[in-house]
Design goal:
The protein is elongated, with a radius of gyration of 21 Å. The relative contact order is 0.14. Helix 1 runs parallel beside helix 2 and helix 6 packs across helix 11. It is built from 12 helices and 11 strands.
């Protein structure tokens, strides 16, 4: 790992050159570029400035809130002011970016569809809950495993590469925990559909769970950590809980008891979330279309 660090600047330079050549070849009228990292939008801004094209930046929440990207925040603030639009994932971030004098637009992620899921058989007659995660540091895995021991009458099926966990923590998992490993997206959705409920847990107040939104898109009962962003997105839809073993166990049990009503709430919430996204897409089209310059190719999305 240490040997790869000196190569990182060279890798970004190579990717920047590749991106520039791609833009020269395709000549997009409007460029939508994702950040973080900040290097792709910097290349995009320079190219758009030289060619009088429109730049739209799709801003990941981590850019604004994660310690990892704090060093790049001053660059992003200046860069965003030169963008035609900055797409953000929460209304809070829309207000924040607007306060910098940059044009922000709240555009939530799209939701999963049942047609995208790979049909999966039921693995057991025991009630099962898919815990959708990746074993990132913000996920309270120790508390979750302790909670699993309190509900031996249900199976907890955890997604994500278990090799990311300490060996001692993996070996401490009770028998009703199954590590599914990393799953392709269609199988991931299939596991959600086959389970009785879906759970997402985080200790980070600035995480907006894509997996939780997928569960709502599929009409699945949802359990979620009671964190500010998740509460705002899943309120009155999910069973919310603190990241403590007893609280998690109670929430899982409550989700099974309210399975039918929670599934209905998810379906209703999905209508709202899809309406939010449709509205955001319409605003995006209005923002870029009237002022667009002639182009041979239309819109290019790059990362």
């Amino acid at each position: 790992m240490g040997r790869s660090l000196p190569l990182t600047p060279l890798r970004y330079l190579a990717r920047g050159l590749h991106m520039w050549r791609l833009l020269q070849r395709t000549d997009p009228r409007t460029l939508i570029v994702i950040t973080a990292p900040v290097f792709a939008p910097l290349v995009g801004w320079l190219w758009c400035a030289l060619h009088r094209r429109q730049l739209v930046v799709d801003c990941h929440p981590g850019v604004l809130h994660f310690r990892r990207w704090r060093w790049a925040l001053p660059i992003h603030r200046r860069l965003f002011r030169h963008a035609r639009l900055v797409l953000v994932h929460t209304p809070d971030d829309e207000r924040l970016v607007n306060s910098w004098g940059a044009p922000a637009l709240f555009l939530p992620d799209d939701l999963a569809l049942q047609s995208q899921a790979l049909p999966m058989p039921r693995h057991t007659t025991t009630p099962s809950i898919v815990v959708a995660g990746t074993f990132d540091p913000d996920e309270p895995i120790s508390a979750l495993l302790a909670a699993a021991a309190l509900v031996p009458d249900m199976e907890l099926r955890l997604t994500g590469d278990p090799e990311r966990l300490p060996a001692a923590l993996r070996s401490s998992a009770p028998k009703n925990v199954t590590f599914l490993g990393y799953l392709a997206y269609d199988r991931f959705l299939g596991e959600m559909l086959a389970a009785d409920a879906v759970a997402v847990f985080t200790t980070d107040p600035h995480v907006m769970s894509r997996a939780g939104q997928d569960a709502i898109g599929l009409g699945r009962p949802l359990v979620s950590s009671d964190r500010p962003w998740l509460r705002s997105r899943f309120a009155e839809t999910a069973v919310l809980c603190e990241n403590e073993p007893e609280a998690i166990a109670r929430a899982l049990q409550e989700a099974l008891r309210q399975q039918v009503s929670l599934a209905q709430r998810s379906r209703e919430r999905a209508l709202t979330l899809r309406a939010w996204r449709d509205h955001g897409l319409e605003q995006l089209k209005l923002a870029v279309s009237p002022l667009s310059l002639p182009s041979r190719r239309g819109v290019l999305r790059t990362v």
